[in-house]
Amino acid sequence: MSTRQTFTGDLSVLPTHGFGMRSLTWWGVIAYMLIEGGGFALMGGAYFYLMSQETVWPPASLPPDLLPGVLFTIIILLSEIPNALLKKAAEAQQRDRVLLFIVLLDLIGVALFVIRGFEFAHINVRWSDNAYGSILWALLLLHTIHILTDWAESVVLTALMFTGHGHEPRRFVDVSEDALYWRFVWATWLPIFVLIYLVPRLL
Amino acid sequence: MTASEHPDDVPRDGPELDGPELDRALSETWGDKPGLIGWLTTVDHKRVGKRYIVTAMVFLLLGGVLALLMRLQLARPDSGLISADRYNQIFTMHGSTMMFLFAVPVMEAFGVYLVPLMVGTRAISFPRLNAFSYWLYLFGGAMVWVAFLRDVGPDVGWFSYTPLSGPEFSPGKRADFWAQMITFTEVAALAVAVELVATILKQRAPGMRLDRIPLFVWGMLVTAFMVIFSMPAVTLASSFLLSDRLVGTQFYNPAEGGSSLLWQHLFWFFGHPEVYIIFLPGLGFVSAIVETFCKRPVFAYPVMVAALVTTGLLAFGLWVHHMFATGLPRLGYAFYTAASMSIALPSGVQIFCWIATMWDSRPRFELPMWWVVAFIITFVIGGLTGVMVASVPLDLELHDTYFVVAHFHYTLIGGAVFPLLGAITYWFPKITGRMMGRRLGQASFWLVFLGFHLTFMTMHFTGLLGMPRRVYTYPAGLGWDALNMTSTVGAFILAFGVLVFLVNIVLSLRRGEIAGDNPWGAASLEWAATSPPRPYNFAHIPAVTSSTPLWEESLPVFSGLRVKERELVLTTVVDAKPDLRDPSPKPTIWPLLAALATTGLFIWSIFSPWALVYGAIPVGIAMTAWFWPKSTPDIGREPVIE
Amino acid sequence: MRRLLPLLPFAALLSGCSGVQAMSEGAGFGSHLFNQLMLLFLAVTGISYVLVLVFLTFAVVGRRNAGGEARLKMLLIAWVGFILIGLILLTFVSFMSDRREAREGADQTPIKVTISANQWWWGVEYQNDDPTQIVHTANELHLPVGRPVQFKLNASDVIHSLWIPALAGKQDLIPGRDNDVRIVPTRVGHYRAQCAEFCGLQHAHMAFDVTVESPKAFAAWYAAQLKPAPEPTDPGVKGGRDFFMTHACANCHTIGGTPAGGRTGPDLTHIASRSTIAAGTLPMSRGNLMGWIANPQGVKPGVRMPAVGMTPDELHAVASYLETLK
Known about the structure:
The complex is a heterotrimer. In chain A, 72% of the residues lie in helices and 3% in strands. By secondary structure, chain A is mainly alpha-helical. In chain A, helix 3 (80-91) packs antiparallel against helix 4 (95-121). Chain C contains 9 helices and 12 strands. In chain C, strands 3-2-1-5-8 form a 5-stranded mixed sheet. In chain C, helix 5 crosses helix 9. Chains in contact: A-B, B-C. At the B-C interface, helix 4, helix 10, helix 11, helix 12 and helix 13 of B face helix 1, helix 2 and helix 3 of C. Strand 1 of chain A pairs parallel with strand 2 (555-559) of chain B.
């Protein structure tokens, strides 16, 4: 360097990981939520736009059966309990509790996939029938992809927790952020549930 | 932050480990393997940034050749040089290449290269994602170009309106290649945007408070947020289009409840911010250049930042001005007219501030400043014709004519390409260690500047005389003949100028004058690194006490980062106080493999919806391998955790 | 100085460029308003540009005499004020202009015309409560000067855009949507209109002719349009008519007063009275008619009209027949 340097401090005393806003990957997760959340918001906008083109909604079919949707909603909301406990355990770096809750959530994820399958089967319209069918399938499909990616990440993290890498503080940060992302997954489900199951019944 | 025992057996940078010995150790840690392996596995933001720049410039050339072909065809009325089908592919590819494969990527490329250096850190926030995004961009661009060269290129305009681009009126795969190219480039752009936000918010040099960030970095931050909020719209639009075409959804089919206006809303909700995504980094270039060559910070820094942020926000409220002829309620249009006019205000303010900076100093008019002056002269014309087309009665005549073509080339070339050429000239010494040639630079400047105006000023008149856009030919006798010929001549002069500029680059790479670390006497941190920068950027993490660190008496630096591991420092968001040491990933092949898997998934899904299921498997495997920790578990070597 | 060269053409603009497809013709209420509004915008934006250039010139070549930050801050505030006032003025005038145009002709009974856009031709139907008074034509418009015309717009396939530059601004024709626009022609003349939304392969060849004429001339034209096709007397022409009716032609085209009732292509009842054919692509003439019929793909590649196999004699006959359809 051509400019004169003067030493002004020592970085070696700094820790090597932090939770929440202090973590770099936390910002990545937040940015991802903004992107996907924006995408969902736009899909919601498209939903209302298409709805405004019709006098009857659904235009030519029954609304989706309520039971699978309600069941799914209840279970995913309940999953926040072990999820919150998982996050807390991760931030306290309690490995055993983390293992317990992350395996539990992996299993809950499987259950949710099964119910989601029933939701698709009882949506009562094909994606190609009309624009109403297309947007409903699109909403449900996009949300399913989010559950899938978060679940896959959880499974990989679970596996990692059982290896030697499971003792690194970095892992606990990963688990904490995974739990944060799960909140995004159920939070975005709520308005989508309304759009798929409730709005077609309101009109 | 608690002090603690720290293992003294770990070498760290500092007064005891400095100079050539430190350079050797850090280069070993931060360097890549030699040869092809190193090239394929690098996660160094500078190498990835450089290849992004080079690839974008290649697409600029390709898009430029397409423009010349268009101009050759339009030079004379009723020309039979290029068939209708070929021409429609050419103009579609010209717009798509320039917008998606050149303009946005080149701006992101400069962000990727410069931002970590400007904020004083050693790497970009997510280096593997960065590498992955480059490969995805390259493969997506290659896909659509291969399609074009095989006569299955998209032919429905860069904006691909439905129902023309839908399954009924665009059979075959042409429009699908376009729509999937969108997916490739938007995922790449989003990845870079996320990296820039994280780098700018968390990796700034200690002391680099929000009011000390270089204006270019502010520009990239606002741009990154615009990307994050706008790109999902076009990805959604193109996904809906792909699914209409592939599996029979009805999003855009009015017969089954769909709407072609839905396409337009979604596309332009992205499309308008898109041009500001291209434009804002250009403004950042101008600020950087003006500061250096006027030897003072840009006038009214807080106003400049406010102008950038306001532009970014307003950009989202304008999109309906692309739809004034579609028959939506007139009162709604009035809102969009007002909003579209209002965005002239922050731009006008910035123009004032740059000129004021020049006025209140002794500017040196080196070549980068020539491009700044050219930018002001040119972009303002574009901005003012923008004010015209913001008016509904005016737009209803001017829309879809060559007047609009003139308008957006004035804003895009004047507002983004001229600053870009200045930026290349300005940062060339930092990136390559050599200065660009002066004489060829001046020659290319005049050729480009005069060629540009000859080509596009004329188009204002061509449009006013009634020539619509996107026509592969026109009849004689409407008064357009001489004007079109003039534009064609101008286009070739402009192209020649670009060629001279590129020749200058090539020659300067070999024979340019060797540049020192800071040949222009600039103030920002990238000029504290060597030219070109070492793989680790800075031997010691710099700190700053002002917005012009290199113009201060000395540069404070921090010691203490590990030398045998890749390590950088994270600081707090607002005040930039040192907070954590963060490890930075080592080179790896997995981003490339994941990009290949993703490319397979994307291209396959043009042909079959099952690609989403089966194609996801290799992607999942590659992603898992990517994130699986490679090193031995790092237990007990850390200082106390808080 | 050389940098100001590009501004020269602006001076030319003020002298007024004209042409059958030029906006500056000002032959309609809308385009007239456009011209006035455009001049105002040019004036305001022109002044702004000059100010920027003057300031820039001072900054580049002037002496370092700026008077410091305080003076510049005041100048900035003045500049912001100037921009705000300018933008508010332009927005307001633009809005008022738009409303003025919307009001024009609202109190008169308009002529009602439905335009259906297709790839790549224009179906035109003059509406009337009395069905026997409805005129069907294609690729042309005749309008009486001074009387508002209300267009109903629809499209059968993709999005097109109706644009008669000399008269007024555009309006899109969107499948699945009915748009409408009111235009008031104010000056007699011949003008050219063209599709202004990219609609596929032959978008460049989707134009039509507009004739604005005196009410008397319009009435005469309208009356002629209502008449069916004349019965041919000449045997050669008869042969042409028969060929037309017994081949693919009649499947797509309508000729009033004959069995030909196809609606896929333009109505040809009075084709010979039009100044162009193939949606403004070729001037109306015997030779062009023959060239078009013999080889539509050669004239307009991708056009939906097939080449109907015929001998040169048959071609002559058909062309002769069509020429009688005035």
